[in-house]
Each structure stands twice: as structure tokens, then as C-alpha cells.
Design brief:
alpha+beta, about 15% helix, eleven-stranded antiparallel β-sheet, 5 helices, globular
Length: about 280
């Protein structure tokens, strides 16, 4: 029986660095088999083998990047239970300039400032480490504006993704009432929490405080992750990431440099790159 090695993040602080394509996108497709490969289509046939062990070597000149952590967070959706609950045609992707899948509203008191979201997340692009296959309309990321930047977006750069939001499949009205512990949102919440723990991420609100801070590091994700994920007893957060505003959302945990959050009222989940968090409330 082969052994499994998982990447550990300690107290939830991680520095992303360049990693082999076969680890970030474990689809088993070589370039020479490009004609026939079909890497990790979602949701039904997504294969998620254990990543190969690596030892990242952080350096002061390593740029802040969420690419590897965001890929790992999106691979949480490969869990069969979670994949059966997620609506893969109700996604939202935020980049520096664009919001794909919905326009941004002016923030009010709601959990987020997203309009109705409707992008499709199809898969990691076959034999490509840098793109996601999606479907939807790209709007300029300006709150209160619904100006369309590009119709019919088919792919987006994984390096450009700041945040992701998605929703669960609607519950059939004729289904009998179920106990609160068995409602789809609670099942999804537990599945995500278990998957984060299995991948070496952080879901514990009582993490230790790192007394010796690296104040020369130009990346700020360590402090953000510590404040929101490992030393946050309330498990609630209000934050901004670019033009996206999230208010009083639940902190599920963190995976690498990506925060995993949720709002029960809207049954929406969020993956937010900690490097792009600018303000906390």
C-alpha cells in the first residue's frame, strides 16, 4: 500500500512557491497525450489523487501568489459528497479588473455585495497549469456598474483569481423537512471542514501566536491568516478583497494562503486569497 504525504501548513501560514504541474493539477496527463487527456472535469469525474510530497523553500524575493493554494482549494470540490451538493453553474470569479459570473453591487448590510451569480466552473483546463475552463459573462469589477467587459468567457487565468464564490444546488420544495444537521448547507460545511483538515489546512480557532514575526516579508498573508483563521474564536469575519465586500461571514478555515468562508443565509461559500484582503471589520 502506497503511503500518502500531505503538505502541512503549521498554524495556517503558508508561502506559495512554484510547484510541479503534476502536483497542482494531478490529472495524469502528459503533454504527449494532449490529444486524449481530459484533466479533472467537474463535478462527476474529478479524480483527486494525493499530491506528491514537496518541501517548499520560501525566500524573501518570492512573490505573493495564490495560484497553488487556490488550485488546492478548488480541488476540495472533488469530494464526492460536496460535488453532489454544489451547483457548478452558479459560480463567481473575481480578478483585479473583472467579475466573471455576476456584477458587483454597492455594499449594504448583506453578507456580500454580489448580484445573482451564474458562471459555470467546468474543470481545470486540460494539460495546462494556468487556466480554468469556465463559462459566463465578464463585467468590469466596479461596484454599482453592470458594464459588460466580455461576453462568452471560456477560460480565466488561475493566477488572476482573487476570490471565488459558489452556491449549492437548490433544495427540491417537495422534499420532506430534514433535521438541521442533515440540511445540505450543514453537510457541505462539514465536508469542507474535513477536507481542509485532511489536506493539512487549518480549521482550529485556537492556533498559537507566532512571537517572532518576519516583518521583512513583503507578503501580508501570514498576519491576515493568523487574525482570521487561527486566532479568531468567534469564527466570524468582515473583510474586503478588492471590490468584494463580505460581512459577518463564517470562517471555515484556511488552506495554504486561501481563506475558506461561508454564509448560511445565502448558502454561499467563498474562497478568498489572503494576499488580496485589504481591510478587516
Amino acid at each position: 500500500m502506497s503511503s500518502k504525504t500531505r503538505r502541512r501548513y503549521g498554524t495556517g501560514v503558508a508561502v506559495d512557491s512554484a510547484i510541479p504541474a503534476e502536483e497542482a493539477f494531478p490529472c495524469g496527463c502528459a503533454q504527449e497525450a494532449a490529444a486524449s487527456c481530459n484533466c479533472c472535469p467537474l463535478p462527476t469525474s474529478c479524480a483527486c489523487p494525493s499530491p506528491a510530497p514537496i518541501v517548499p523553500v520560501p525566500t524573501n524575493d518570492t512573490p505573493c501568489c495564490c495560484k497553488a493554494s487556490m488550485a488546492e482549494a478548488l480541488r476540495l470540490l472533488c469530494d464526492p459528497t460536496l460535488a453532489s451538493l454544489v451547483d457548478f453553474d452558479t459560480f463567481f470569479f473575481l480578478t483585479n479588473s473583472l467579475s466573471v459570473g455576476g456584477a458587483l453591487n454597492v455594499p449594504t448590510t448583506t453578507a456580500d455585495n454580489l448580484d445573482a451569480i451564474g458562471a459555470s466552473f467546468r474543470r481545470f483546463s486540460p494539460c495546462n497549469c494556468d487556466l480554468l475552463d469556465v463559462g459566463g459573462t465578464a463585467y468590469f469589477a466596479i461596484p454599482g456598474s453592470a458594464s459588460v467587459a466580455l461576453e462568452g468567457v471560456d477560460q480565466i487565468s488561475l493566477c488572476a483569481v482573487k476570490a471565488v464564490a459558489f452556491q449549492l444546488l437548490p433544495t427540491e420544495a417537495e422534499e420532506p423537512a430534514t433535521a438541521a444537521c442533515c440540511e445540505p448547507f450543514q453537510v457541505a460545511l462539514r465536508s469542507i471542514r474535513r477536507a481542509i483538515q485532511a489536506e493539512g489546512g487549518t480549521t482550529n480557532a485556537c492556533g498559537t501566536c507566532a512571537a517572532h514575526c518576519d516583518c521583512d516579508n513583503c507578503c501580508c498573508n501570514a498576519g491576515i491568516l493568523a487574525e482570521l483563521s487561527t486566532r479568531n474564536l468567534s469564527r466570524m469575519a468582515t473583510l474586503t478583497a478588492g471590490p468584494l465586500v463580505l460581512q459577518n461571514v463564517t470562517v471555515i478555515g484556511s488552506l495554504g494562503s486561501v481563506l475558506v468562508l461561508a454564509d448560511e443565509d445565502t448558502e454561499r461559500f467563498y474562497l478568498v486569497c489572503a494576499d488580496h484582503v485589504e481591510a478587516l471589520g
